[in-house]
Amino acid sequence: MNAEELRRMFQIFDKNDDGHITMNELNDSLENMGIFIPDLLGSLGLKQGGNVEDCRKMINNVDVDGDGRIDFMEFKKMMMRGVGFASFT
Ligand SMILES: [Ca+2]
Ligand SMILES: [Ca+2]
After folding, report:
1. Distance (Å) from CA 11 to ligand 1 centroid
2. Ligand 2 centroid to 66 CA: how many Å?
3. 38-43, long-range: CB within 8 Å, 24+ apart, which pairs?
4. How far apart are CA 38 and CA 20, in angstroms?
5. Locate the EF-hand domain: which residues (predicted)?
6. Ligand 2 centroid to 35 CA: how many Å?
7. Which sequence spans correspond to the domains of the chain?
8. What is the residue-level pLDDT of the chain in tens, covering all 89 positions?
9. I need a surface site. Which of 16, 31, 42, 78 has the fewest CB within 10 A?
10. Closest ligand to 66 CA?
11. Phi, psi for residue 65 in degrees, rounded to 5
12. How far apart are alpha carbons 32 and 66 in whole angstroms?
């Protein structure tokens, strides 16, 4: 996955386009994605439909600056870990 693809993916998650993915945005996006690519959620350690607690854990895992949201750098890190993303492009 190249930088442009990452950016595009980030924009899918960042619904209000403010440069941060919040827990609610993550939760919504994962729900939508689970419909099309259920394997993706498994690769990130989530169940289909996810839940708020899962999203919180996911954010905590990559939230370097501890503001409870995911910025682009943190998102990149998360994607590097999510092996299933290869099949998404
Ligand atoms: Ca946002
Ligand atoms: Ca952060």
Report:
1. 9
2. 5
3. 39/84, 39/87, 40/82, 40/84, 40/85, 40/87, 40/88, 42/84, 43/82, 43/83, 43/84, 43/85
4. 24
5. 1-36, 50-85
6. 27
7. 3-82
8. 788 988 998 998 999 999 999 999 988 887 777 666 667 667 766 665 556 777 788 888 889 999 999 999 999 888 877 644 444 44
9. 16
10. 2
11. -90, 0
12. 26
- Tell me the C-alpha distance between 89 and 79, whole Å: 12
Ligand nearest to the CA of 20: 1
Residues comprising the chain, all counted:
89
Residue 70 has what pLDDT?
95
Query: Can you give the pLDDT at residue 85?
Result: 47
Superfamily the domain 3-82 falls into: EF-hand (1.10.238.10)
The pair of structure tokens assigned to 57 is 């854990």
